[in-house]
Amino acid sequence: MLTKREELFGGTPDEYLSHKEKYENSTRKAVILFSLLRKIQEENNTDLTNYRNLLSGVLGASISQDGSPFGLHYIMFMPVFMSQADEEQQERWLHRALNCSIIGSYAQTELGHGTFIRGLETTATYDPSTQEFVLHSPTLTSYKWWPGGLGNTANYCIVIAQLYSKGECHGIHSFIVQVRDEDTHMPLPGIKVGEIGVKMGLNAVNNGFIGFENVRIPRTNMLMKHAKILEDGTYVKSKNSKLIYGAMVFVRVVIVFDSVNYLAKAITVATRYSAVRRQSQLKEGEPERQILDYVTQQDKILTAIAGCFAMKMNARMLWDTFNVINDQLHKGNMERLGELHALACCLKAISTSDSSLFTARCRVSCGGHGYMVSSTLPATSALTTASCTYEGDNTVLLLQTARFLLKTWRQIDTGPLTPTVEYLKTVSAPGFSYKWENSIEGIIRGFQIVSMKKISSCLNLMTAKVMSGMSQADAWNTISIQLVSAGESHCRAIVISTFHEDMSKAMRSMSASLAEVMGQLVELYAVYWTLERLGDLLEYTSISGADVVKLRSWYEELLRKIRPNAVGLVDAFDIIDELLQSTLGAYDGRVYERLMEEALKSPLNAEPVNQSFHKYLKPFMQGKL
Ligand SMILES: CCCCCCCC/C=C\CCC/C=C/C(=O)SCCNC(=O)CCNC(=O)[C@H](O)C(C)(C)COP(=O)(O)OP(=O)(O)OC[C@H]1O[C@@H](n2cnc3c(N)ncnc32)[C@H](O)[C@@H]1OP(=O)(O)O
Ligand SMILES: Cc1cc2nc3c(=O)[nH]c(=O)nc-3n(C[C@H](O)[C@H](O)[C@H](O)COP(=O)(O)OP(=O)(O)OC[C@H]3O[C@@H](n4cnc5c(N)ncnc54)[C@H](O)[C@@H]3O)c2cc1C
Known about the structure:
By secondary structure, this protein is α+β, with helices and mostly antiparallel strands. Helix content is 54%, strand content 9%. The protein contains 21 helices and 11 strands. The chain has helices at 4-9, 19-42, 48-61, 71-84, 87-98, 246-276, 295-330, 337-365, 377-386, 394-410, 423-428, 440-467, 472-478, 480-507, 512-532, 534-540, 545-562, 566-571, 577-580, 591-599, 611-621; strands spanning 104-107, 123-127, 132-136, 144-145, 156-165, 168-178, 191-195, 208-212, 215-218, 228-229, 235-236. Strands 1, 2, 3, 5, 6 and 9 form a 6-stranded mixed beta sheet that branches. Strands 4-8-7 form a 3-stranded antiparallel beta sheet, with no helix packed on it. A two-stranded antiparallel ribbon has the order 10-11. A hairpin with a 4-residue loop joins strand 2 (123-127) and strand 3. The protein is globular and about 90 Å long. The protein starts with a helix and ends with a helix. The chain binds ligand LFZZZEXQ and flavin-adenine dinucleotide. Flavin-adenine dinucleotide (FAD) binds at residues 72, 106-109, 114-115, 146-148, 202, 207, 386, 389-390, 392-393, 395-396, 399.
């Protein structure tokens, strides 16, 4: 009789399963795991604020690097319900979703549209005679495409469609739709649903497609916490049309935490492997050195560790900011919605692009063995690159942040600014002067000045182009590279300052030795990004060549200081081997034995001579083919 642990972590490695077997195996594991989580959930009431704890359990427990067919149920279906469904609808469905007696997905993206959601083609037309909506996919491009779990798993999904009533289009709204029979799991009439095929990664998420042929759903299946359709078809609009976007903000907040978790796995593997792997002699006649002793290896890995700690603290800040503003939204105060959206956009974009960049570096830092699937680095790389796209393409999200920053800059003199942008007032105040200094505070100030000057420059460029006769939209597109750069600079200034401030607070309750190491990580992160963004700093601040020489020495000194604590820092992530699932990163350091053990599991090692020898090779080698 297998133990739960053996059931979850034993059996044929996923990499040797077919696409279909991988899905079936993931579903088998998911029901084991989420039965345990369901028990935990039943003891707690659930609203959006305490929901993230459950979600971090779900994400942390998602034991496959290929994701889980239940992912979207937890990550989007339920949060959207909590933020978009009215009380009666939550009463009717949320408990069933929480105890997994229904499994949901979130169907927004279509074959033809992902970013431009106002261009979605799926329609929901209200029929007052029957008090129903008619859901329809008018074109192939209107088919929903990508929703996780929709292929074979979910029996309900939230569909985002253009709402029509009394001949008028009211834009996109959310609807809950049953897609499969709860007993037979057969697709319901008028519904064409399936799985989209093999992807670069996340191949257990069961991403699907769905098309509707005049499918009728009750009026009360429109999620009506904000906007409503009355029985006679009268449309009652939301207090704020942007509230429909609320769930995307929540998921972006979750994804920042996710990106930290994925990066933590990758750097745990790369750091431990770099301590085990010996290669080349630093000095003739000496034993081969741990590759972690090479400064170029430290440059790849220690900066990733610092980045992981930095983003973890920013994820917490974002979550706290989300809760504060979400409470205000519930009380009808929309004042900071735009700021929250801009912050969630840029932190989602920067956390996922950093995580993708550093994970790829971890992969190459492990040489050939880092290219083995059994190292788990290829899967983590595939995962982190996906996160640069899902829940909003990073470029598009940074443009959203830039849109907010330009709006803020236009109003800079009309009154106080909200917390995440008040630095713009400080560094642009009359009489403010700043001379570059090689210190954490000096670096933060430098990044804030770069951000402010980029925003100001973008607005001036826009104004000049529009004055020259260019349309607003063309002017925006023409300078969009600089707009993205302004969004990134704003975010980097926030990440460094938050890391410094929050870590400084945390260090007060640490031992002196631990505080010293944490302080080194903050400095390493700040100095690394200063060297990475030298062009901006040379353009907008008084940093000099001499400052740069000193910065480089400071950087190399920090690598030297942090090296002895590298393994301890990643051990502190405390990721158990079963979740790490890596031949290179296992706690016991038996890298070579594990590589061989995993290789022997390959079906191609089941017999000494593969059948292709007799069928193909032998006749070929004998000239008979
Ligand atoms: C069990 C374990 C499982 C583990 C599995 C691995 C983990 C996986 C983790 C997560 C899985 C994720 C699954 C993925 C799900 C999805 O991808 S769902 C689909 C997501 N799609 C998007 O994000 C679409 C992106 N596009 C947009 O958001 C918008 O189209 C837009 C880019 C913002 C542009 O829209 P629009 O043209 O309408 O907007 P603008 O004209 O630019 O601005 C209009 C005003 O609206 C404000 N706005 C826009 N968005 C929001 C928002 N989200 N919140 C608040 N306000 C918003 C914008 O600021 C403008 O306001 P203004 O006029 O005042 O300036
Ligand atoms: C693994 C994965 C899981 C997903 N899960 C779901 C899910 O469960 N539910 C769901 O609804 N969706 C899901 N998606 C879809 C995802 O939300 C979209 O892929 C994403 O929103 C990007 O849209 P798109 O793919 O249409 O790319 P596009 O929007 O076509 O972007 C392609 C390129 O065009 C550029 N571009 C687009 N618009 C602009 C603009 N205005 N300005 C400048 N450049 C622009 C982008 O920067 C990008 O470089 C998932 C996607 C992935 C990869």
